[in-house]
């Protein structure tokens, strides 16, 4: 798993003679901004960082690749990526992610099989867990036009039709009432075994939200809780494809981030501190990480490890049903049992690639599974 990059990867990487870049999409799933590139066959990209006009950029290059009809510009989100610019030239296809300044990030990448023999090259960016989390501004509510709706005057051209929507209509796809397990299983067929197990074990949907705005078109998120496990939650994100020949993305996480207590509360508060607040108490940002955040993370890893071992059966059932392999559950539990190393910041493990299974041991312990659904 890649956690960051400085400078350029050697130029030999990313050369793809004859490869065709067919689609480029930018989306957000929870705290992950995802760039999805649809290729006619598997290929690697060259990644590099640079700064232009005072703004950091992450550059993705498919050298010697051909470009189909690609969008020249994709709008980003309010988290990490402001916009994406696509350039097609004789030397290849370049995708430039313009990032917001002063927002540290980590990233990972993977190559996934796509429909009809195509390949999906996916890059995921997350806020750096070693930096305080920055609050994301809420978009303003849309305003009603004054005077209500008026009819167009005769002779004027009708308004342009909305952009083509490659998804099925909601009524054609979703079964079950909103916020129900029936709806979840309808949206996520590959996760059906896991969802049926959670429902059978007594988990209930305590929160659910629907979104219909740029970057989150027709997406949903759900939070499942259980009275017997107050420190645990199952968080689910459904992100439908917004381009043809791209998959829906479903993310299911079993997390300990409902852990209470002085350490957890203090850590959450410190993650939200601004740079000016940090400077009042610490001489530089490095002291804040080493003297304030790092000791709390060590305590959190110890506390959440205890929770995971106490509720080991919950984690084992979750992983066995998601990966259809008891070996994956055992591998994760072996990592959790390892002694907490106080010298390091913690790690993330890629436990399995299809489906993608991650184990986070940085602060609040969680396991996360990614399912790609082709409709």
Explained architecture:
The protein is an alpha+beta fold and 375 residues long. The chain folds into 2 domains: 108 residues, Immunoglobulin-like (Sandwich); 210 residues, no CATH class. The protein has 8 helices and 17 strands. A 7-stranded antiparallel sheet has the order 11-12-13-14-17-16-15, with helices on one face. A 5-stranded mixed sheet has the order 5-1-2-10-9, with no helix packed on it. A hairpin with a 4-residue loop joins strand 16 and strand 17. Helix 2 runs antiparallel to helix 3. It is globular. The two termini are 28 Å apart. The N terminus is likely disordered.
Fold blueprint:
Layout: E1 20-29, E2 32-39, E3 46-52, E4 55-63, E5 66-67, E6 73-75, E7 81-89, E8 92-99, E9 105-113, E10 119-127, H1 170-173, H2 181-187, H3 192-200, E11 204-211, E12 219-225, E13 233-239, E14 248-255, H4 262-271, H5 275-281, H6 285-310, H7 312-323, H8 326-337, E15 347-353, E16 356-361, E17 366-373
Parallel strand pairs: 1-5
Antiparallel strand pairs: 1-2, 2-10, 3-4, 4-8, 6-7, 7-8, 9-10, 11-12, 12-13, 13-14, 14-17, 15-16, 16-17
Structural features:
single chain, 375 residues, alpha+beta, Immunoglobulin-like, 2 domains, 7-stranded antiparallel sheet, 5-stranded mixed sheet, 8 helices, 23% helix, globular, disordered N terminus
